[in-house]
Amino acid sequence: MMTGFDGNGTQGNPPSFIPSSGRHRPAPQSSRLDQPSADPSAQPASAGAGAPPSFPSTTGRHAASAPTYPPSSAPSGTPSMAPSIAPSQSFQPQSFQPQSQSAPQSIPQSIPPRRAPRRSAGSSRNASASPASAASRMLSGTGPTGSAAPAAPAGPWQGGALPGTAQPGAPLQGPGAAPVAVKRRRRALPIVLCTLALLVALLVAAVFGALGWVNGRLNKSDWLTGKSDTSGATSWLILGSDERDGSSAPGAGDDTVTGYRTDTILVLTKPKSGPSSLISIPRDSLVQLDGQYMKINAVAQLYGGKQLVGQVEQITGQKIDHVAQIKFGGLESVVDALGGITLCYDQTVNDPQSGLDWKAGCHEADGATALAFSRMRYSDAQGDFGRAARQRQVIGAIMKKALSAGTLANPAVVAATADATLKAITVDNDTNASTLLSMGLAFRDATGDNGISGSLYWTDPGYYVEGVGSSVLLDDTKNLALFSQLAEGTHKAGAVGTLAES
Questions:
Q1: What CA–CA distance (Å, rounded) separates 28 from 49?
Q2: CB under 8 Å to 6, separation ≥6 — which residues?
Q3: How do residues 113-161 score in pLDDT, each as one tens digit?
Q4: Are 336 and 366 a contacting pair, CB within 8 Å?
Q5: Helix, strand, or coil (residue 198)
Q6: Which bin fits 337, alpha (ψ -120 to 50), beta or left (φ > 0)?
Q7: Sign of torsion over alpha carbons 486, 491, 493, 497
Q8: What's the number of CA atoms in the CB half-sphere (13 Å) around residue 194?
Q9: Which of 88, 186, 249, 364 is deepest in the core (most CB within 10 A)?
């Protein structure tokens, strides 16, 4: 609604212009008011009583030239004067600029340059009390606290928008606009933290629940000796037994065969720092127990598991911290639970003693094939040493498959493998679920590219002893030095043993 008219009869005043009350504004007392001023601060205090001090007076015409009417004689359709404005005052909005092109547009030093409006954070101290109070502050040229208000946007006659209207693309102002987005951002962090905390709690519960389930199903036996540990490394003795257990291996289901032999003997060592190692002890290694010579694979059956551990500690010079023994049938069931493993052998073999029927190359092997692959030696030119190398390959393939992302992402395979493993192994009294996990990781590292693997050093692989037969005579000095380096983590990665150096 435009209520004022200029001298030409056109609507030239913005909505905030209110006609004076029935009288003309007094004429200026000085001719200086009719001239443009280059310095707004030099204007007399009485010049342009209705205009804010930041703008010069109108040049070339008087503000009193616009017709004014008493309240009782206002033309029809002209709204009455707002009661909150004194009749003796005439106001111009801050956005009103003089029409003279020669008037300077400088900003007085007493008023800071116009800044972009600050987004409200939702505080009631920043929000306007009411539209009326906001309008009165705009007309009086003061901010919420009585200070000079920032310059309002330019009027429509200068290419801007009317005061109080939103600019295209500008952020919304006022209560209910910015506070919503800010509060949502502030709430997002606690929600994310709570979600992460819940997931961690569930993971911890699942892990400890699984560990408790494993610990409750472990078959334990008294294997360990009282030897002190001085190296700080952790050593596991891994045993494979041919005890008859109904597996598919030839002779495994023969109930007429009594006793058993530990045909697989592996020492896994993880130092505090340095590469892990997996070293085979030949099953025919000659040892002496109570003044009697025998092959090491007969010690456990004749004297017990603790005596076998003691013999291994004499050979290596290191404390054995944990023991795990698996039967042939257990190995077969673990491989089947994993869905098979990949094995490689460069010879074509059809061995009736082990049941291995193999074509040279790499193949996916099921449990029965993996077991025969581990037992075959008569068709191998390297005999028991070749068998020991294939046993290490089988163990490494099992651990690689068990710890792969594909297996761990399949709960059914994990459960089946864990169940088969727990049924197949016997461990020492100090072993728990955490120990088995550490053993699996050490297996993976030892059989990887940065690990150490091989067999013991020996001086005679066919040393004959009366009543014992052909045996492997070990090189005690070299073996003690080897395991000292393995425990300290100072041995370089790669293959070790007599076969590796020959």
A1: 10
A2: 12, 13, 65, 66
A3: 445 444 444 444 444 444 444 444 444 444 444 444 444 444 444 444 4
A4: yes
A5: helix
A6: alpha
A7: negative
A8: 5
A9: 249
Q: Which positions ≥6 away from 417 have C-beta within 8 Å?
A: 334, 337, 338, 402, 407
Assign 181 a pLDDT band (cuts: 50, 70, 90).
low
pLDDT, tens only, 10-37: 444 444 444 444 444 444 444 444 444 4
Average pLDDT, the chain: 73
Beta-ladder partners of 472: 285
What does the pLDDT read at residue 60? 43
Q: Where are the alpha helices (DSSP H) in 99-177?
A: 131-140
The tokens describing 262, both together, are 């530990």
**Does residue 282 register a pLDDT over 80?**
yes
Q: Which two tokens stand for residue 233?
A: 């490394």
What is the C-alpha to C-alpha distance for residues 394 and 365, in angstroms, rounded to an integer? 10
DSSP for 181-193, please give it: HHHHHHHHHHHHH
b/e map 457-493, b = 16+ CB within 10 Å: bbeebebeeeeeeebbbbbeebbeebbebbbebebeb
> Hey, what are 39's tokens?
């310095």
Where are any strands of DSSP class E within 95-233? 220-221
C-alpha–C-alpha distance, residues 484 and 491, integer Å: 9
Closest CA to 418 of 124, 212, 160: 212
pTM of model > 0.70: no
